Every structure is written in C-alpha cells, then in structure tokens.
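About this split. The held-out portion is used to measure sequence recovery: a designer receives only the structure tokens and must propose an amino acid at every position. Recovery is the fraction of positions where the proposal matches the reference. Here is one held-out target exactly as it appears in the evaluation file.
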C-alpha cells in the first residue's frame, strides 16, 4: 500500500531576508508535486501572496494556496532590516517544525536562512547556527554537514573554525565519526547500497610522504585503514587538487574534506545555485538552501529560489528513501 503523503515543513528563517519570498516561489514551483507547510507570520510574506491558513500539517496536503501554520511574531517586517523582536518567533518556528517531523506529521524539514546575530540580540540564542540547534533538539552530539547537488556531494570534517585550528581540531575520532555518519546517510537517505568515499588529505599533495606535513601519515591514513578493515570502500588520503575534475568525480559518491573551503569551493564553483545544505546524523531529514539571508536583495523580487527548490526536492527524496524497503 502506498503511504499517505506528508508535507515538508519549512521554518520561516529570518523574516527580513529572502526566506519568505523563496519559500513562496518554491511552493509555486513544486507545491503540486510535493506538499509543503510554512511555519511563520503570514504578514511577513511578500505583498500579494495568496496564502491559506492551516491548522495541521495534514491540512496542507489539500491546500490550494500557500499553506501557513500561522504564528504571530508581534512586530511588522521591513525587508533588509532584521528586527531582534522577531528572534523568538524564528527560533520557535524551527522547534515547531522539528516537532512536526519527529511526530511523523511531516516527512522532512527544510529550513530557510537565519541571521544569527539577530537571534542573539533578540533571544540570547546560544548556538553557533542551525546545525547545532537542531542537534540539541534531537539529542544528538555528533552531526555532519553535507553540501550536495546533482554534480557533487562534499562533507567537511571540520567546519566553521579558523584555518590555523584545523590541524588541532581534526582528530582521528572526528574523522572516524564523520566518515561513519556519512556512510550511513548515503545508505539510508540516498539509497546507495555500497557507498564509495574519497577522502582528501589535509596538506598539499596529501603531505607527499611527509614532505609537506605528517598528518596524513600519523592520523589520516591509519584512520582510513581501520575503516577499510571494517568493509568501507574508501580511497585516500588524496591530493585535494586532483579530486574534483569530471573523471575523478565519477569514481566516488562523496568527497570527505578536511576543512570548510576545501569542501565548499568545489561545489560552489560547479553548482552555485543548486547546492543544498544537509545535516547528516539527525533522526529526521533536514535540508536548507546553501545561501544566506541576502538582505541586500530582500523584498526586491529578484531572489533566486533554485537552491530552496533543490533543498525541498532533496528533502522529499531523502524522506522517501528512509521509508523505502531496503534491498
């Protein structure tokens, strides 16, 4: 029996950014194929938006206009000017969306971009960003960030830290957990029965036998060898400068990189508009467009919704993979 459809929950994100307009644009593009429900204050939607109040996620499935689980943020919105008064409403929108997914009422979560400083100023937000807050809500201590498009999947083992700290923060335990979480997600969320993982080195030419650094010899290679002994299909450590041309990309399903820019520069070069941010290791599916609030163009009706549309499609696809029978 085919399971009943469930909507993708969309948290509103920063109201003064482009989140509201790309959410509406995405519903116009995919809403007939993928049911959606937006959680936020409808007065913050673009002028003239045809929206429909719903009282449950189930009601969004048959909605004929942009479906809104209405929340009152208590203050008007000005495009391009974040208002700290909205902070608690933004945070609650995320928590409400997570609750809907955890209860099974929604299939997956897609988060619109937030403005962390506004959340700190208005609600003393204690987390570095979405990922850490979602991990806390889910009770998970280890989660992994993936950036994905039809052209490439990348995972940075370390994320938002200064480059000078990468070699210190990059431990065998961190790399091991990152690889295991990524491998499990490729099987569960992407339907890849035997994932192929390519792992970059930290140093130029993957250290070149210790000439340019010893992290590959002392930590990375032993960690990979241990995982290979467990049956994982891993190549590396590889020289990062030869990993991303077309022939190389055809040999793996994901590239595990050692730091933020090593991972994000390739995918943003290949597919700047279509990249999707995914949090792996959560008990639910979470995706997000791979861009920020874009205050400079908010309210101008010029925002590109491509990444939001891709994020919604990917969320729905991942949710389906989680419920599909395993071969």
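Reference sequence for scoring:
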């Amino acid at each position: 029996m085919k399971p009943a459809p469930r909507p993708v929950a969309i948290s509103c994100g920063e109201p003064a950014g482009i989140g509201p307009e790309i959410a509406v644009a995405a519903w116009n593009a995919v809403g007939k194929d993928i049911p959606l429900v937006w959680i936020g204050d409808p007065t913050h939607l673009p002028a003239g938006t045809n929206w429909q109040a719903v009282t449950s996620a189930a009601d969004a499935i048959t909605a004929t206009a942009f479906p809104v689980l209405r929340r009152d943020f208590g203050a008007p919105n000005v495009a391009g000017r974040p208002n700290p008064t909205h902070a608690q409403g933004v945070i609650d929108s995320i928590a409400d969306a997570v609750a809907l997914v955890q209860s099974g009422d929604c299939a997956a979560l897609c988060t619109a971009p937030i403005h962390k400083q506004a959340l700190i100023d208005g609600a003393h937000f204690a987390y570095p960003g979405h990922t850490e807050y979602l991990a806390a809500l889910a009770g998970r201590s280890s989660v992994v960030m993936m950036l994905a498009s039809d052209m490439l999947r990348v995972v940075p083992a370390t994320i938002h830290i200064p480059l000078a700290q990468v070699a210190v923060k990059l431990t065998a335990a961190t790399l091991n957990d990152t690889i295991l979480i990524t491998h499990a997600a490729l099987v569960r969320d992407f339907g890849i029965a035997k994932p192929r993982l390519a792992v970059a080195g930290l140093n130029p030419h993957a250290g070149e036998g210790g000439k340019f650094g010893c992290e590959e010899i002392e930590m990375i290679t032993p960690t990979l060898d241990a995982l290979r002994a467990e049956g994982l299909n891993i190549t590396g450590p590889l020289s990062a400068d030869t990993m991303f041309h077309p022939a190389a990309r055809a040999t793996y399903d994901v590239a595990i990189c050692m730091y933020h820019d090593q991972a994000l520069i390739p995918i943003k070069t290949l597919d700047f508009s279509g990249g999707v941010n995914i949090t792996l290791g959560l008990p639910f599916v979470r995706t997000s467009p791979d861009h920020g609030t874009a205050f400079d163009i908010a309210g101008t009706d010029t925002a590109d919704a491509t990444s939001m549309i891709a994020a919604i499609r990917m969320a729905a696809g991942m949710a389906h993979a989680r419920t599909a029978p395993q071969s």
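Annotator remark: The chain has two domains: 1-143+275-327, 151-270.
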